[in-house]
């Protein structure tokens, strides 16, 4: 899911998203900045618009989301930075998230039209995450989110928590990993059993002149693209790749705002195509073959990161095996 913070993508029109076959985006009810104060009642913070104080309770969060009318709405949760070490605070946040879920479900006025996804918390603590997931599974909901990750933790700490989430949460309901958008991470986490993702990465990196390809990123600001008449990706059918060269994008990337627009179109197309490709291979029973070919393209000398090989080994995939 591309992220449209206020219900719109930066630099893209709604009909362009439709032409990319993008059927769902993520919008944020509130961005909590300015040192929010978290209590059992909710989250108090300063409005980014007029600096007034706002108290966002679980009930108010659901009221707003009921009004917005999104198909999937999220509970209010207590989020702690993944590198945080205070066990008591992590435990408090995990248990409070479950209490807030109960309040969100009780306040929900449109349960037949909108699905609340509980958010599994627990940071990097296996016991707390397992408890959180199992407590959420007692609720009558249509899907689950795995939250509190991608906040600066090491990959070796990240993937076991994702794996734990997909191991415990039911297979017959969507499992949504929040805030993950790098291509390698998407592929690996799909192998672990994740169904949905969101991330600002494709549009944010476009604003810095970076275009996404299977092998990683092209920094179009670099001089080596000055005379490169190839499209960003010859296998991409997006409107940017059909009509513009790397050389042209290089010329405008630092001076024209339209460059952000053109690269954003490609980056979202890239991620949509990657996800559709994985879905097709899963249905056809060829996902492991696809995964190995993808990893060989990203790491052509087979210099796979240890976290990738360890993670995939945990689900029976050996990258070095023919």
UniProtKB/TrEMBL annotation:
Xref: Gene3D superfamilies: Queuine tRNA-ribosyltransferase-like
Domain of life, source organism: Eukaryota
A Pfam family recorded for this sequence: TGT
Annotated ranges, domain tRNA-guanine(15) transglycosylase-like: 37-297
Keyword vocabulary terms for this entry: Zinc
NCBIfam families: tgt_general
Protein name: tRNA-guanine(15) transglycosylase-like domain-containing protein
Organism this protein belongs to: Iphiclides podalirius
């Amino acid at each position: 899911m591309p992220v449209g913070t206020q219900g719109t993508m930066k630099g893209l029109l709604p009909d362009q998203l439709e032409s990319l076959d993008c059927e769902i985006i993520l919008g944020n009810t509130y961005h909590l900045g300015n040192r929010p104060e978290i209590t059992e009642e909710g989250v108090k913070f300063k409005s980014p618009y007029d600096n007034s104080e706002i108290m966002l309770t679980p009930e108010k969060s659901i009221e707003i989301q009921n009004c917005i009318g999104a198909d999937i709405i999220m509970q209010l949760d207590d989020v702690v930075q993944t590198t945080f070490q205070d066990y008591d605070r992590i435990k408090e946040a995990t248990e409070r998230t479950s209490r807030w879920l109960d309040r969100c479900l009780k306040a929900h006025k449109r349960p037949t039209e909108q699905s609340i996804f509980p958010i599994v918390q627990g940071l990097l603590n296996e016991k707390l995450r397992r408890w959180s997931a199992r407590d959420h599974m007692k609720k009558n909901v249509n899907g689950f989110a795995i939250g509190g990750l991608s906040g600066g933790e090491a990959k070796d700490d990240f993937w076991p928590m994702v794996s734990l989430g997909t191991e415990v949460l039911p297979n017959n309901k969507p499992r949504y990993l929040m805030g993950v958008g790098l291509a390698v991470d998407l592929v690996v986490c799909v192998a672990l059993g994740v169904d949905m993702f969101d991330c600002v990465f494709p549009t944010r990196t476009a604003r810095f002149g970076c275009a996404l390809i299977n092998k990683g990123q092209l920094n179009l600001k670099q001089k080596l693209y000055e005379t490169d008449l190839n499209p960003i990706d010859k296998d991409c059918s997006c409107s940017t790749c059909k009509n513009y060269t790397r050389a042209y994008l290089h010329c405008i990337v630092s001076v024209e705002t339209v460059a952000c627009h053109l690269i954003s179109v490609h980056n979202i197309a890239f991620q949509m195509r990657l996800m559709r490709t994985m879905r097709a291979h899963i249905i056809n029973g060829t996902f492991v073959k696809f995964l190995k070919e993808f990893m060989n393209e990203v790491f052509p000398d087979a210099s796979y990161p240890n976290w990738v090989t360890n993670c995939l080994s945990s689900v029976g995939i050996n990258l070095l095996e023919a």
